[in-house]
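Friendly challenge for the regulars: who can give me the structure tokens for this chain first? No prize, just bragging rights.
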Amino acid sequence: MAEVKKAQPTGGGGGAWTRFVTARPRLTLLVALVLTALAVLAGGGVAERMGSGGWEDPDAESTYAIEVLEREFPASQPNLLLLVDAGRAGVDDPGVAAEARRLAERLDAQEGVDGVGSYWQTGSPALRSEDGRQAVIAARIEGEEKAAGEVLQRLAPDFRGTHGPVEVSVGGPLAVRHEMQTTIQEDLLRAELIALPITLVLLVMVFGSAVAALLPLGIGIVAILGTNAVLRGITEFTDVSVFAQNLTTALGLGLAIDYALFVVRRFREELAAGADTRTAVGTTLRTAGRTVLFSALTVAVSLAAMLVFPQYFLRSFAYAGIAVVLLAAAAALILLPAALLLLGDRVNALDLRKVLRRTGRAGGPARDGASGAEVAEGAGWGRAAGLVMRRAPWFAVATATGLVLLGLPFLGVKFGTADDRQLPAVAESRVVQDELREGFPGSPGGALTVLAEGPATPAQYAGYRERIAALDGVARVDGPVTAGTGGRTHAYFTVVPDGESVGAGAQHVVSELRAERAPFDTSVTGAAAVLVDSKDAIGERLPWAAAIVAVVTLLLVFLLTGSVLIPIQAVVLNALSLTAMFGAVVWVFQEGHLSGLLGFTPTGDIETTLPVLMFCVAFGLSMDYGVFLLSRIKEEYDATGDHEGAVRHGLRRTGGLITAAAVILAVVMVAIGTSRVTNTKMLGLGVALAVLMDAMVVRSLLVPSVMKLTGRLTWWAPGPLRRLHARFGISEGGSEAGTGTGTGAATGSGMAEAPGPVRVPTEVG
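First reply, four minutes later:
Bragging rights claimed.
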């Protein structure tokens, strides 16, 4: 009988990249250790240099008006409020009044403080509570956000607390931002302490080996520390939001674990198949390594789309996200192969599932290096895929309908601005704002300001005031307050709208004020005006962001698969997987369901930038899992030409891996979601839900059923695109020398023949 020798993968240990990565593994790891230590030093204190704002459009009319008002009328834009509580004595008690005036004088004498005013100086009823027990001292701390925050830290301890007959609490927009920044830092540390040990336990359960489990965790830590250093450098040139650190931790751990899972799993398969360590590393880089590279590019593109928006809150997530994705991929493709080369078979050391691995499925070692449990799990995924494809129309319609229904609450979304209610109810600055909302007349923070520039007579001011007072939805108009600088006159009017400060009525008043003609230049600002401008900026640039994500994703998936239909399916199904997340955001965080359980205060709206951020992050992660699955399906299809068999094979090989990766990432996101800041809670829990829905519903049910329905048409591409893919396309099964001889091209599928694994005997004796 002829002896058939097993084919060896071409270029198993060759290739320039493989040679570069594996040439000096000890030196590679030593350099990485030194660079990581430098990153720790460079990234230290990065949170202190970050801002907690960034929701407004810097080029908007409202932003321009705020800048002029801060310069010309500091008292009109107070960012520091001292809430003076006189108790039963009342704020008009002579002793209370004398102490309050002393406090105001002390505050006015502080360096960096301007525009100090108080109830005891002005007698304004807006600065006195309705029960007469509390009143406000208002001031403006000058400078940019970071400098003003430093002044606040210096002043707050001196003014907070008991002063004679009064109790003073520190609040105002600057205090809210500072407390939010501090809270986020504390919550992030707690999230890391929660996520790291749970992640390690889950990785041990996935791999069995404690050594293999530590590798993904190490890659994640390198990515996080490196990104902190990158963000520290970026803060030298532009503003970066402190919220971005949450994404750094989540994606640093999540994606590093995803990539390391994929690489280590493939390496162990190659070892179990009989390859030596160097050949196994080379094959792993050629196959799983290419998939990791494509995945990283798709995630980075999704996050890069946020760079088109002007708000530095969104741009910050792009900075952090792109950095952490690229660093995680680089670590997985450079450091991890070096470590695997040194470990060899010891990657399976400290195996906690040794008994299962010994028995396998038939009492011996599993043929692909998996444990018996892994083999059984893979077979289970294969059977599940077969069941789904046998009932493909039912599964496709039922799953898609269910996802659409889960997303219906988003049709009722209302957009608003972030305020102090993001903080926990016990936060000092939140308590101050709550007291102002509930106990003081008017709508604190809800008034609109109309800036008037240019020469004008008192009669012109009076006429303009009468016209805007007559506008629908305007409750009261105060002013003008005037000032002249350098021959140019500035004035402002305070306009109080009916109803909620950022409600539809207030936004309508903004439009009416901007449409009203005046004999001087006018600019409108205030909470509702900032919201209107933010919505306009996002609406104007959203099509560009969506186009960038869609076009680049389509191109990358085409280069991976050579198909026209698969990239379209990937984009549509990934977007569909996000519906549950968006529906839950409205149902939980806008409408307030589960607010008691989750510990937040519902405001009746969603901050404008959050849906954009959550879409970019969740879409990128969905593509991450999609690329893992499609690469294995494509590899099998190139080798066999069996469409349904390739889908079953892809799910059998990656179903458990994707689910494990999704669960681990969800654990990290839920840890982030334990934050006491509502927006961070919404981001963490929302993305966790999207990731689980994508891995457990879309990849398990919708993808195989849709691919069954499209059949062999799935792999079709017109002639020019086939030639394009033949020249530039890359598939996981590709080799670095030569091409494969799979049957995919010969079966008339129209699919460009991509390099694939050689599955024919090399010698027949």
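The chain is about 60% helix and 10% strand. The first strand starts at residue 80 and ends at 85. Your move, everyone else.
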